[in-house]
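Q: What does the predicted 3D structure of Aconitate hydratase, mitochondrial look like?
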Amino acid sequence: PFTYCTLYTRLCITSCNKPTLHLALGQGVRRLHVSAAFNAKAKVSMSRFEPSNYVSYEKLNENVNIVRKRLNRPLTLSEKIVYGHLDDPVGQDIARGHTYLRLRPDRVAMQDATAQMAMLQFISSGLPCVAVPSTIHCDHLIEAQIGGAKDLARAKDINAEVYNFLASAGAKYGVGFWKPGSGIIHQIILENYAYPGVLLIGTDSHTPNGGGLGSICIGVGGADAVDVMAGIPWELKCPKVIGVKLTGKLSGWTSPKDVILKVAGILTVKGGTGAIVEYHGPGVDSISCTGMATICNMGAEIGATTSVFPYNHRMKTYLEKTGRGDIASLADDYADLLVPDPGCEYDSIVEINLDELKPHINGPFTPDLAHPMADIGATAVKNGWPLEVKVGLIGSCTNSSYEDMGRSASVAKQALDKGLKCKAAFTITPGSEQIRATIERDGYSKILGDVGGMVLANACGPCIGQWDRRDVKKGEKNTIVTSYNRNFTARNDANPATHAFVASPEIVTALAIAGTLDFNPEVDYLTAANGEKFKLEPPSADELPKLDFDPGQDTYQHPPAEGGSKLRVDVSPTSTRLQLLEPFDKWAGGDLEDLQVLIKVKGKCTTDHISAAGPWLKFRGHLDNISNNMLIGAVNIENDGINKIKNQLTGEYGGVPDVARHYKANGLSWVVVGDDNYGEGSSREHAALEPRHLGGRCIIVKSFARIHETNLKKQGMLPLTFQIPADYDKIRPDDKISIKGLANFTPGKPLSAVVNHSDGSKDDFQLNHTFNETQIEWFQAGSALNRMKELQ
């Protein structure tokens, strides 16, 4: 059968340049010897789950050498890995920040909330099997209520239809399936699939977590994943490279999390857009492998394409401890390939001295509002933020490693020894079944439980809004502190009055014990049960367990060895959770005339605002049902209201999805107008699918977040930006807008807008776009999936 194995072999054979290969291997006996050595090195499996798919450093090295010679300059590590995966390293135009690259990623990973739509799209493609190793991870649909085991059992029951669909689709199309309870996608990837030099795409914005193992791991929408699973080259705008030079070394209360909290404060939520953040310098070696993953994970919060660290002994040790010593040995052989070239240049550089870095806490309501712990108390009082900490939450994909749990337990043990427990509620989310089993074996879970903590399921839980919170009423002003990555309004608990702050797990633990936001463990004292004053000592813990990791329960389902051609994947036409997709309509061939402004959005509009998570996650596989949450969190500039817009056909006010449906039913296409960094946050492509499904044709904003802009293009929408940002102010909530110039739609050529106001006056201005020729074909076909079918 034609599988990703045979496809990859054919690609390698057809792309080899015979004279170059002949030169590399030499003549006669010498050629045979080198060829045998190459083959011996190639026989290292990418993972224990795919023993016949091999790490291919020789191909990576060959491509890097081609590109380095072409560009005639040293390469950053990011460039080596990205350019090393070019579909055509000889002919590809390469200009950082300008050209689009056609890449061949090594693998795909999908979490269960986004995998539903990705697999529905793959089914629509008509292809029999995925072309690259791919996995599905069940982590998003488990709601935190009363504790890990019971919450997991409840999730398996209420999500049985979705889990069965994903498991059967995985089996039929050759996709590995990690069952609910296995852990969070990014921790599973780090433990099993990431390795230095791999290029992985994942349908979650925190996929960059794998950069802690020297990987280029990039968050994408489901349609991008479908391209890669279909064996089509994946397009990425050639990233710029921001260098972060680390000097000194971490110590005391300062943790890896503080590095990215500091960087977020410097670069802001959009400072990394269109760039890979590459950490380097002597300070790198003071950070554990899982600590580097924490830093890369939260790089999504600065808009970065991804983040990466160079291969070092910390990564080698982690690979060995997770059963991948053979990959570590091979990486040692190619160590020069897996670090930046001496003399390479970055587009910009940030320098951080770890000796001087202090513990930070970021928030509320945005992850780039950075405060040193020493300042947060006074800042909170000044701004009227509640000082009482209601809940402390540690874990999540960002901070749930063995080291994280150990450092938190170190703090908790000190409190217990003095007769104290947490004043705030306290929850712990293990990142994987392996972490859960190991911290239970080694006593960390007991310490964290004894101090007042509740261990939740191995899942995303409250980090993504899967939290049945009952200690405060909706609208009640309160403070929570988490070791998560995002703290957008209402993200964790659906309460817009919750002030969420992000810090390291050990700082969160200390604040949960103290019960107040203005407690700085570096200088402040606690009162023991006997009345004595004491200070918490800086936390200390092992980077990795002294014994081997305890794998816990086996939660992985292999695709059947005989293939899935005889298997069926059924979707009930009456299901409220799953819905087969219908193709979107093609471009009609003319300009888009008189698009009604549906909503003019004021201020920050993340993908949480566009397509909320939490209780809506259950509809992620049913496009029509999930569309009932479209833009219900966005602020309407007309009235500062949420989910309250005027229906221009009836004159009545209603919810955004309801008005959009009414327009669609009456043949009226519409447009959304937005502000800066529109669509920041999650990779969820539902934020692009829903507008398209409900009759939207165009989104016009000051600037886009990378993933969301691409997702809109994939679904046949027009993401456009004001050539002059101040033109945003010219648009009124009841305007109609015509998009002109589509008959001559070409890369680099602006389109124009004619705005018809209700008083009879008009405005016109230029709109920029970033479409290339292939993406214009997506628009003309109605979607990337439609175009894929046209080419079959």
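A (community wiki): The structure tokens above were generated from the sequence. The longest strand covers residues 592-600. Residues 155 and 767 are 46 Å apart (CA to CA).
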